[in-house]
Every structure is written in C-alpha cells, then in structure tokens.
Predict the structure.
Amino acid sequence: MPRDGEKSAALYAQDARLWGTLSAKQSIGRDAIHDYFNAGKQLKARTVEIGEHACRMIDTAAVCSGHYTFDRTPNEGSPEKIPARFSIVLAKQDGRWLIVDHHSSPVSPQR
C-alpha cells in the first residue's frame, strides 16, 4: 500500500475496522484508518511483498488470508523486515469492493 493515508483509506468502507500489524489498538472508521496509514510517512521507505495467500467468495463478501513481509526503513534507524499474516474481508458497497475488516499480526519466530 502507498505511504499515503488518503489513498490507503479509500480502499476501506466508512465503518471498516483495521487491526494494524504493529498497532496496540484497532483503527475504527475510515478517518482512523487514514491516520494509521498516514503514520507511514514517518518512514524513509516501506514496501510489502505478498506471499502465499488465498481469497474466496462467500455470498456477497470475499475473504482473503495469507502472509506478507514488510521491508521498512525508519528515518532514524536501520532497515528491518517484519513478516506478518493477514485476514481481510471485503464487501461490495455501491458497486465497489471495499475492505470492511482487516487484521494483520507479526509472525513470531519459530521455536
């Protein structure tokens, strides 16, 4: 996703919920989701590589899950990789598929 809160939030429904990868709380509603993604502007760089994933239709919704790896470089600090897993629910609203629920959590190192 772009490091732009407005462009990212536009992919979400007005009342969507996002549990961000490194967030301690949910972002509820498009305005809060905008703020969550806009915080990415504080990074010098951020990219995401999507790994294994799958999507399926269930009536009028789509459910996707999988994993991705974030490569991010803070303005002050060294580059880091954050492997994470996600679940996303999309629903068609006014002719557009929008994210209504998104959960992302870091993957713990295997023991």
Notes: Strands lie at 12-19, 27-28, 43-58, 61-74, 80-93, 96-106. Residues 5-106 form a domain with the Nuclear Transport Factor 2; Chain: A, fold (CATH 3.10.450.50). The longest strand covers residues 43-58.
